[in-house]
Write a structure and sequence with these properties.
Elements (H helix, E strand, L loop, with lengths): L3 E8 L2 H13 L5 E14 L2 E15 H14 L7 E5 L5 H10 L2
Antiparallel strand pairs: 1-3, 1-4, 2-3
Amino acid sequence: MTDLVQVVTVVDSDDVANALVRDAVAARLAACGQVDGPLTSTYWWEGQVETATEWRATLKTTAERAAALEAFLVGQHPYDVPEVLTTPVTGGNPDYLRWVAGEVR
């Protein structure tokens, strides 16, 4: 079985999140992705606490393709220091896992 990972990032608009997902899938870096939000994020930035509205993009790919997807997201991201987090998936529907692997080859 191929190792599946989820890669997550957040951006400041629905349009940007959907474009990142669409472009990553079109490039075969991810098999699929979802956008959810709006979310309220609170964080330290340049010495002060900030609060912003953001949208989360969650993409599914293989561990083998994760670094390429991460590089793509960082390169296309509008933020100076984008959040790009990769989490291994430890289980799931074997048919779905095979489908993801097949779509990112």
